[in-house]
Amino acid sequence: MKPWVAYSLLRVGLFAAAFAVLMLLGIEWWLSAILAAVIGLCVSYIFFGRLRERVALDIAQRRDAPARDVDAEVEDVREG
Asked: Where are the transmembrane segments (predicted)?
């Protein structure tokens, strides 16, 4: 699984779990959403540092990779 997919799923899961707990406690939905977002951010920042670094490295590798130009490849095949 790509690191950004795992990181995204963990963040969404944290938000959903925190939101559900806050809603069960009877807190207004808008305040629950704000608090769940803050809780998810804090927990992911503290505990998922390695995964966040892997996401950053994956993004950097994608940016450093040469762009694939399909049109140029087709033209090269036709000329050769």
From this structure: 30-48
Compute the distance between CA of residue 47 and CA of residue 13 in angstroms, rounded to an integer.
14
Taking a C-beta distance cutoff of 8 angstroms, is the pair 10, 48 a contact?
A: yes
- Least Cα distance to 4 among 64, 32, 44, 39 occurs for 44
Mean of the pLDDT values across residues 10-32? 97
SS3 for 2-57 is CHHHHHHHHHHHHHHHHHHHHHHCCCCHHHHHHHHHHHHHHHHHHHCHHHHHHHHH
DSSP state for residue 68 in the 8-state scheme: P
pLDDT single digits (tens) 30-76: 999 999 999 999 999 999 999 999 999 998 888 887 766 666 666 66
